[in-house]
């Protein structure tokens, strides 16, 4: 059997897939189907022949996966020739139950279904992807990799909210944390770049993409993270507010007569950079900021200030920090964000090298040679991590 895994990330109206070699991380193909169920869908497939696109209507997730399989057949690579080892599924919420990847069977589907109230926007779509893939690949092992799993090592004092104790016991209300696959992948890569054992290093990981989250990783274990019961808490994001006074919800309901759903939507889809400057794409926001746009500047300042607050807080949680790691679209590409977020922290032993930061070299080190805390830029690769975890689980089962 080969070590190729078809990694599937199903959203409410989209299906993203990658064909990854678990050993090397090389993507033999990937693709995205968007606007499922709308009159015009959009399909993109990148394989050995380059990229192909189409806009035929695709009615359901099942049709989307069938369209992806057609694309593999027409444009390659041939899934039959590659003999897939497994299908790996990104599942957003694993609750308190899942701290590791799990082989999917009917019982697992039922358990993920029970978690839907904790992630009403994400888990139903992930489940749809699982059901469809099980129908189309009945003989392949299918593995669920949870976004929350890596953060299951948080100690009780970090995951417990100061609310009536029965809320946790009866309703599962606690911090779970997300982006765990990315934080875990990047932490391991950081230890390698530092030439240290993961068990011996303390890291602050900053995943800054459309969604943003920070984590404190002590000896390879997540001990604090900024996202909470849902992916709304913490850093400022593209369209999500991150932290805010919880009394604002009541105020909006009482003063403006907003429903819970309206408030939820405003905080998840109309806030963050988009709420502040009308723009959630960081590249466009940067262009506007460079041109002197005041709203874009304020959005940038709020965004970076929040990151700095978390760096300070997680420094205190960890006691000593070996490296701060920036990853995901903004973290990897915005020298300005790295510089503004870490400015003035020299007394904490954090010294950014402006030349390295402007154009990070292959090793990703952007701190000065004498900085006590290394600052690293490391590309994340959640699909590879899902493929690795899926193959490791399948191999373990076969031993
Ligand atoms: P991700 O969720 O990791 O794909 O990150 C998406 C975010 O990264 C978007 O806000 C992009 O605008 C931003 N991004 C991607 N490339 C760049 C770049 N070169 N400079 C600044 N931001 C970028």
Q: CATH homologous superfamily of the largest domain, by name? A: ATPase, nucleotide binding domain
Q: Helix content range of the residues, please?
A: 40-55%
Write down the Rg: 21 Å
Whole-Å distance between the termini?
A: 14 Å
Strand order of the largest sheet: 5-4-3-2-1-6-8-7
Q: Unreliable segments (pLDDT under 50, ≥5 consecutive)?
A: none
Briefly note the structural class of the backbone: alpha/beta
CATH architecture annotation of the largest domain:
2-Layer Sandwich
- The CATH class name of the largest domain reads Alpha Beta
Number of domains: 2
> How much of the polypeptide forms β-strand, as a percent range?
15-25%
Quantity of strands, as a count: 13
Give the ligands present: adenosine monophosphate
Mean pLDDT, as a whole number? 97
The protein's oligomeric status is: single chain
The biggest beta sheet reads: 8 strands, mixed
Tally of helical segments: 16
The best one-word shape is: globular
| CATH domain fold name of the largest domain | Nucleotidyltransferase, domain 5
N-to-C SSE series?
EEEEEHHEEHHEHHHEEEHHHHHEHHHEH
Subunit structure: Homodimer.
Family: Belongs to the acetokinase family.
Keywords: ATP-binding, Cytoplasm, Kinase, Magnesium, Metal-binding, Nucleotide-binding, Transferase
Biased composition (Basic and acidic residues): 39-49
């Amino acid at each position: 059997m080969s070590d190729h895994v078809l990694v599937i990330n199903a959203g409410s109206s989209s299906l993203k897939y990658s064909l990854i070699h678990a050993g090397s991380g090389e993507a033999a193909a990937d693709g995205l189907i968007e606007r499922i169920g709308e009159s015009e869908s959009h399909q993109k497939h990148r394989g050995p022949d380059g990229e192909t696109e189409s806009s035929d209507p695709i009615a359901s997730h099942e049709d989307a996966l069938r369209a992806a399989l057609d694309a593999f057949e027409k444009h390659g690579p041939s899934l039959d020739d590659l003999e897939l080892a497994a299908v790996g599924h990104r599942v957003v919420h694993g609750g308190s139950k899942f701290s590791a990847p799990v082989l999917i069977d009917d019982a697992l589907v039922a358990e993920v279904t029970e978690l839907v109230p904790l992630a009403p926007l994400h888990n139903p779509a992930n489940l749809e992807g699982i059901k469809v893939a099980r129908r189309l690949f009945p003989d392949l092992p299918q593995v669920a990799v949870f976004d929350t799993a890596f953060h299951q090592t948080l100690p009780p004092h970090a995951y417990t909210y100061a609310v009536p104790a029965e809320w946790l016991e009866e309703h599962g209300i606690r911090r779970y944390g997300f982006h765990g696959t990315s934080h875990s992948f990047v932490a391991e890569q950081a230890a390698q770049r530092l030439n240290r054992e993961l068990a011996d290093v303390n890291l602050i990981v900053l995943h800054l993409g459309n969604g943003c989250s920070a984590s404190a990783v002590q000896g390879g274990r997540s001990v604090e993270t900024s996202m909470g019961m849902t992916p709304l808490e913490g850093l400022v994001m593209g369209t999500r507010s991150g932290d805010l006074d919880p009394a604002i919800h009541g105020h909006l309901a009482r003063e403006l007569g907003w429903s819970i759903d309206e408030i939820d939507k405003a905080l998840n889809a109309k806030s963050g950079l988009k709420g502040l400057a009308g723009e959630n794409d960081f590249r466009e926001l940067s262009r506007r900021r460079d041109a002197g746009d005041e709203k874009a500047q304020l959005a940038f300042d709020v965004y970076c200030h929040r990151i700095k607050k978390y760096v300070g807080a997680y420094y205190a949680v960890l006691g000593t920090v070996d490296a701060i790691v920036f990853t995901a679209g903004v973290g990897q590409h915005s020298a300005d964000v790295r510089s503004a977020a870490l400015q003035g922290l020299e007394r904490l032993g954090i010294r950014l090298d402006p030349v390295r930061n402007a154009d990070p070299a292959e090793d990703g080190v952007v701190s000065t040679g004498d900085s006590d805390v290394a600052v690293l830029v490391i590309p994340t690769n959640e699909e590879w991590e899902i493929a690795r975890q899926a193959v490791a689980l399948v191999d373990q089962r076969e031993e």
